[in-house]
Design a protein that fits this description.
globular; 248 residues; binds nicotinamide-adenine-dinucleotide; Rossmann fold
């Protein structure tokens, strides 16, 4: 029997694919047999800005013209400020958080995914079905812990809010378009190790059952599962891959 994580013949469009996790995601999906079209603001197969509906619609039209179809759409683009111990004090604090930063994150992380989902649902309804995976975060289901982030370096408030919204967008699409053969699930990774300093990793891992941060490869494996027929019985769910973060 062929493995059900086989993505042979699948055409997959990923947003924000030129970033840190995008490379790992593309490699894992390609290894599973998929043709992956990487979209991003630059350094991509197709340039697409998720804040611009015309740019999204043009990119979808181009991919369908080139590949004949789009089976899977992954909303991965985000404003995701990385942990920075040197971040300017107060800049990120709740009471001073700049309104334009909040609006920018809503526009990319939440409305961006919503715009892409509109294009995806339109295309998938015509095609008779498809799969959407929205890359959220464990911080969309649980708030960051104060002990892990020194004051002034907290994960900004806009990140958690937009990722929580993305999870509900996913459930809404699943509920509304399951009858059209469209599945939608969210992937909620924990903190993925990316040259964080030892002090941060030590504090972070104290809160995980596996006593470590996640690796990009294990998050990519979960993405392959959600994109593939192996997850065909799931929709509207959030798959949390967070090394057992204990505060949930
Ligand atoms: N890295 C982690 O530890 C981690 C943990 C949990 C969730 N996530 C989520 O995984 C996804 C990928 O994270 P990453 O670490 O690769 O982030 P990243 O910042 O390296 O990549 C994000 C990409 O999104 C693109 N992007 C930003 N604005 C865009 C726009 N308007 N239109 C199109 N593309 C745009 C950027 O150019 C960038 O390439 C994000 O949704 C992130 O929130 C990451």
């Amino acid at each position: 029997m062929a493995p059900t994580t086989n993505l042979q013949d699948a055409v997959i469009l990923i947003t924000g694919g030129a970033g840190f996790l995008g490379g790992y995601f593309t490699e894992a999906l390609t290894a599973a047999g998929a043709t992956v079209v990487v979209t991003d603001l630059a350094d991509a197969d197709v340039v697409m800005d998720v804040t611009d509906q015309q740019s999204i619609d043009d990119a979808f039209a181009r991919v369908v013209a080139e590949h004949g179809k789009i089976d899977v759409v992954i909303n991965n683009a985000a404003r995701d400020p990385k942990f920075d111990p040197k971040a300017e004090q107060n800049q990120l604090e709740f009471t001073n958080y700049p309104e334009e930063a909040m609006q920018g994150s809503v526009d990319v992380n939440l409305l961006g995914a919503w715009r892409v989902c509109k294009a995806a649902v339109r295309q998938m309804k015509t095609a008779g079905g498809g799969t959407i995976v929205n890359v959220a975060s464990f911080y969309g289901v649980t708030p960051p812990r104060k002990e892990v982030y020194p004051v002034g370096t907290e994960k900004p408030i806009d990140y958690a809010i937009t990722k929580a919204g993305l999870i509900m967008l996913t459930r809404q699409i699943a509920s509304q378009f399951g009858v059209d053969g469209i599945r939608a699930n969210a992937l909620a990774p924990g903190g993925v190790f990316n040259e964080h300093d030892d002090e941060f990793v030590d504090k972070y891992k104290e809160h995980t059952s596996l006593d470590r941060m996640n690796t990009p490869e294990e998050v990519a494996d979960a993405l392959v599962f959600l994109c593939s027929p192996a997850s065909r019985g799931m929709t509207g769910e959030t798959l949390v891959v967070d090394a057992g973060w204990r505060s949930r």
